[in-house]
Specification:
CATH superfamily of the largest domain: Histidine kinase-like ATPase, C-terminal domain
Structural class: alpha+beta
Order of helices and strands: HHHHHEHEEHEEHHEE
Strand content: 5-15%
CATH topology of the largest domain: Heat Shock Protein 90
CATH class of the largest domain: Alpha Beta
Length: about 350
Amino acid sequence: MAMDANRAWVGYVAALVGTLACTLAGLAMRPRFDLVNVAMVYLLAVVIVALWFTLGPAIAAAILSVAAFDWLFVPPRGRFTVDDVQYLLTFAITVAIALVISRLVERMRRQAEAQARLEIAAETERIRSALLASISHDLRTPLAVMAGASSSLAERGERLTADERRALAQSVFDQAREMSEHVAKVLEMTRLEAGAIELSRDWTALPEVVSSVLARLQARLAAHRVIVELPDDLPLVRVDASLVEQALSNLLENCARHTPAGTVVRVRAQRREGDVMVTVEDYAAGLSDAELEQLFAKFHRGSVEGSGTDIGLGLAICRAIVRLHGGHAWAERAPGGGTAFRFTLPLEAMPAWPEEPLPQPT
């Protein structure tokens, strides 16, 4: 409501300013142009106000324009009277144009808002359906494994060997962790889209971020050959280190989850003009162009061979985090085959270190 009121007041101000501008232009034109040309200038102001604002400002622009034109240009000047009937028709057309254009613009605005609401509703329903389908699909398997393992422990645990009991317990633990990560990703994506996350920026060294992530994912990447290529002269970046770690972690987890054991995974970074580009490359089976475009979409499932389940939020969260930092995230074919996942982080000028005061002589 406040925005509509402000827009209305801006419209009335625009009507007044437009009328004054047309009056100045008309006074400059009067010695060399017919009055009909001056009327067209006022009509132009009415059309512009009607296109950009609501009906009230458009009618105000029409009335102000008619009054100014009648008082200053239509004989007898200086009076709100008209000797020639044709000017009455000009006045009526001016007001009619304001009415017609305002109605058309208002109708188009309502149609656009209705279309936007329909698109939002359709997208919300699509996301809800995809989320429910993903959760039902991706949580069904862990739940079945947990139910089977726990029932085996409960019903015949005494007859199982210690290694068998340990394996069943480990299976329950792994699947519970998998489910917890799924739920955490859904909540994280919700917070990112709602704008509920504020960045806690600080100067960070990317090698430290990479090292921290690789240490945390050591078990998951144990079956892959990870190669790290980071130049020594990488500049510091002013980022929220925990979120950037999460973005990089999601990329590496995606490689671990969706590529066969033994796949080479390469982590690289390079300084460019204005930003630093971080790349995670895997050399498994390549993806089609359509799949590359959809990789960072919510709830997308890739077709690359691998194990595990995923509700398709890891890469979407990565892109959302990178966008929060003012960067970009995308996927493309790697030069040697496979897929390269890339994201950029903008560079900022380092603050100058304060000079230490020289010791004063005693």
